[in-house]
């Protein structure tokens, strides 16, 4: 039986990914995440739910330089952050933010959720790559 709390959290993680991805092009955070509040309001969802989305998107933005340094330091020799696809880079940022900085989510849950989103927006190779890189931060 689906857990609506988990399902809504995954939906909001996915929306955070979409907002962060769109930020790479527009640079405007409020416009990128505003739709989530409207969606929840229209559906009669708990109005605290968009706070999770905003925490994720604003948290990634606030820590992006640190997150990018951590990702770059854990790439294979010869690889750079600029070599990653925008989808993979955005997913890594979101997943690593939730693992390293967002204490409300257990690390393994954050990892599993970002892998599921990666499977939807990327391919199997990317989801394995994301799993391998982010797993390094859980095992430390």
Automatic annotation (TrEMBL):
Entry annotated with the keyword Transcription: yes
Gene3D superfamilies tied to this protein: NusB-like (1.10.940.10)
Pfam annotation, one family: NusB
Example GO molecular function: RNA binding
NusB/RsmB/TIM44 domain sequence ranges: 12-138
Superkingdom as given in the UniProt entry: Bacteria
Gene Ontology biological process terms in this record: DNA-templated transcription termination; transcription antitermination
GO cellular component, one term: cytosol
Keyword field: RNA-binding, Transcription, Transcription antitermination, Transcription regulation
UniProt function note: Involved in transcription antitermination. Required for transcription of ribosomal RNA (rRNA) genes. Binds specifically to the boxA antiterminator sequence of the ribosomal RNA (rrn) operons.
PANTHER family: ANTITERMINATION NUSB DOMAIN-CONTAINING PROTEIN, N UTILIZATION SUBSTANCE PROTEIN B-RELATED
Family membership noted in the UniProt record: Belongs to the NusB family.
Protein name: Transcription antitermination protein NusB
Source organism phylogeny: Bacteria, Bacillati, Bacillota, Bacilli, Lactobacillales
């Amino acid at each position: 039986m689906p857990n609506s709390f988990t399902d809504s959290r995954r939906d909001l993680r996915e929306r955070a990914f979409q907002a962060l991805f769109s930020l790479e092009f527009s640079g405007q955070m409020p416009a990128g995440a505003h739709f989530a509040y409207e969606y929840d309001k229209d559906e009669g969802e708990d109005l605290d739910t968009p706070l999770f989305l905003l925490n994720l998107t604003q948290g990634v933005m606030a820590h992006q330089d640190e997150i990018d340094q951590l990702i770059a330091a854990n790439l294979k020799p010869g690889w750079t952050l600029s070599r990653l696809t925008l989808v993979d880079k955005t997913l890594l940022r979101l997943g690593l933010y939730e693992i390293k900085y967002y204490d409300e989510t257990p690390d393994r849950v954050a990892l599993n959720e970002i892998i599921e989103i990666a499977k939807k927006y990327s391919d199997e190779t990317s989801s394995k790559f994301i799993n391998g890189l982010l797993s390094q931060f859980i095992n430390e």
